[in-house]
Amino acid sequence: xxxxxxxxxxxxxxxxxxxxxxDYFLSQFENLTPWKIIIGLVMGCIVGLIIAFVYKRxxxxxxxxxxxxxxxxxxxxxxxxxxxxxxxxxALSMGMVGALSIVRFRxxxxxxxxxxxxxxxxxxxxxxxxxxxxxxxxxxxGISVILIAMTFIRFRNPNSYxxxxxxxxxxxxxxTQLLRRTVRQRKLRSKTVTRSxxxxxxxVRLDSKQDLVSAVLNIEGVHDATLVACQVEAGT
Length: 236
What we know:
This is DUF4956 domain-containing protein. It comes from Aristaeella hokkaidonensis. By secondary structure, this protein is of the alpha+beta class. The chain folds into two domains: about 30-155, no CATH class; about 160-230, Alpha-Beta Plaits (2-Layer Sandwich), CATH 3.30.70. About 60% of the residues lie in helices and about 15% in strands. A hairpin with a 2-residue loop joins strand 2 and strand 3. Helix 2 packs antiparallel against helix 3 (about 65-85) and helix 3 packs parallel to helix 5 (about 110-130). The protein is elongated. The N and C termini lie far apart (about 95 Å).
């Protein structure tokens, strides 16, 4: 009799625990269903790919980083489920803000535009996490069109290069005359004179089709000439 009573109590306890577990899982998916998570991640992937494509298309630096483009997409994907989880829970959202406030990111950002792209990715993740899918698509497409249009206009301008020339002193006048004939926009950045010769660095803006290096090397007294792509702000 005692065994049957204990057995019945154990069965009731198990059933009670199962009911509480089922209630727990149901409460977890009451506001956030798996279908919403899947839609959010798919939309985040699409939006992140658009941002990565625009970054690659509009990049004007010397070395393009595919890793940073992938990071932009990951920022959108990571931010989306985080906002989904905290948007319906005030206590959780306050705790998340407090946790993020102690995080310190020490990665140096070389280009200010990279910071803008990171904020763009985070903003898209917030919009997608709030389930504002139409707004997110409108924003990402609008910004993409504006950036590509601005980049297309800037591509028509001459590209900036640094021309580094090692030469003998008597060849400087002929080099200067050549630059005056072939380059409209130029600016002397540095000049070094030694006993063995001289070195001159000139910032030039020219069409990529121009073969300035070969023209400089044809001047008698020029030892070598190097043309390096650079990224400078207008007016500096």
